[in-house]
Amino acid sequence: MNSVLLLPIVLGGSVLLTVAAGWAGDLLLRRADARHPETPLWNLLRRCRPPVRIVLFAALLRAGHRHVEWAPVHDNAAAVGRILALVLIGAGAWLIVAVAAAVVESGYARYATGTRDPARVRRVRTQVTLITRVVTVLVAVVAAAAMLLTFPSFRALGTSLLASAGIIGIVAGIAAQSTLGNLFAGFQIAFGDMVRIGDTVVVAGEWGVVEDITLTFLAVRTWDERRITMPVSYFTTRPFENWSRGGVQMTGTVFFHCDHAAPVDLMRDKVREILDNCREWDGRGWDLAVTETTPSTIVVRAIVTAKDADELWTVRCAVRERLIAWLAEKHPDALPRVLLDQAPGAEGTPSGPGR
User: Which CATH number, 3.40.50.2300, 3.30.70.100, 3.40.50.300, 3.20.20.210, labels domain 250-334?
Assistant: First the structure.
């Protein structure tokens, strides 16, 4: 057969076979998804179509390009084969990562659907995220090594590298001590259930929500939309507050400085009225009591509860604002006052320098 015609036949045949195989595989996945709606696995696997097509196309070309007698292809058969091998390895790694991600996401979706505990769902979500990233890193490292081994020079260098692997490992371990520490800390956080994605934490004096956890760093979104990025080793070596651990329900306090004549019983009734009209209050509990006295004021403490930290902040602000407004309107004498008395014997006579 004419070598000029053989090239388009190989290319066209590879394209047709790739399209046909991809269409058939997608059809089977759609039917499987329709028969098993309880799991999203089959629909998630449909996202693997691009790497599957690249793998099929590269494999078909790698198998057929040797039969093409066209001079540019025949004279550079080794280079063409190496390029196709690199594409095949890269697409294969992409396919493995995509399939692993689909399987993990499917398992997480089924677990989240059947679990009503938000804390457990966040814990599994954190573990799933880190597992997916670990798999991605491992597959990428193996794929990069396989690509390097396709070059003869690197293949010959492999023997000497293996002979000095012990020394290299020691040097690399010392140089990457901080990175390895963060890596192991990431595993400790994920599987030790110390902190999870979505937890409300206080770190370095900042209050926020854990937005992302990777193998080396953790991102916290503060209440004013800032992002604080910290190494994960921080959470294994230093104390921090996790307001979501053991449940997201919280109890908060509101302090008022009042005059000694403040109507505490009426203030208690007013706090209950404010909470009854506050939709963020979860109804678990409340209280108001005088906790301290000074020569000029008393300290009144109100205790309120809410379902999470955000709702608690709203409840505390509502109680503080409405109770102060009520005191200013109905009982102004209950607010702190500063009394100034004239010095004895100074009535009608201004005092000061030069007087």
Answer: 3.30.70.100
